[in-house]
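Q: What residues go here?
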């Protein structure tokens, strides 16, 4: 029960203020803020599901690398960096420098995590699908996709998770 309470608390923080979604493909590393996502179970595996619009620089990186990390702060210390990483694109600026954040190696992936966060997940993409205008509810299609730019939903098998040492 305590463990469940802690997952619940972590996910509330995630939806409220966001987390860093980071991926590395070759020499390219990028991070962006996300606040949509679910942690659950599918195919008998722990799975972190994320929603990334096609226009995001991060989208192509994850598509190619097949992996991502989630770095989740549980307090307000990352408010500013989350703001920068949720409004600037890695196509245009060095977000790490601009946001004043550093990466550190993850345990099991090439993609790093963001230093100074509280909870980390390392994920390998095991499935993905594109939100389809034909089968999504008309309400959501109107409210969320007026300009198209549909999300791709990436399912990442959680291969490691741990708390930070800040
Ligand atoms: C609090 C917050 C939550 C966000 N959540 C998402 C999300 O779940 N999915 C998404 O595609 N974009 C989300 N964004 C927008 C991206 O973080 C933003 O467009 C970012 O600049 C993309 O960076 P990139 O082009 O370097 O990948 C969010 C932004 C903020 C501020």
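A:
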């Amino acid at each position: 029960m305590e463990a469940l309470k802690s997952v619940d608390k972590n996910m509330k923080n995630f939806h409220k203020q966001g987390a860093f979604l980071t991926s590395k493909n070759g020499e390219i590393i990028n991070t962006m803020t996300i606040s949509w996502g679910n942690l659950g179970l599918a195919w008998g595996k722990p799975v972190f599901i994320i929603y990334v619009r096609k226009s995001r620089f991060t989208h192509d990186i994850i598509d190619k690398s097949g992996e991502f990390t989630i770095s989740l702060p549980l307090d307000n210390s990352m408010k500013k960096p989350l703001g920068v990483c949720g409004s600037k694109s890695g196509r245009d600026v060095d977000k790490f420098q601009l946001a004043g954040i550093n990466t550190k190696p993850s345990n099991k992936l090439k993609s790093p995590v963001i230093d100074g966060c509280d909870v980390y997940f390392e994920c390998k993409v095991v499935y993905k699908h594109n939100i389809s205008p034909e089968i999504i509810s008309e309400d959501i299609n109107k409210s969320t996709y007026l300009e198209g730019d549909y999300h791709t939903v990436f399912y990442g098998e959680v291969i490691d998770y741990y708390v930070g040492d800040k």
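A: Context that may help when evaluating the design: The CA atoms of residues 77 and 87 lie 18 Å apart. The chain has one domain: 2-163.
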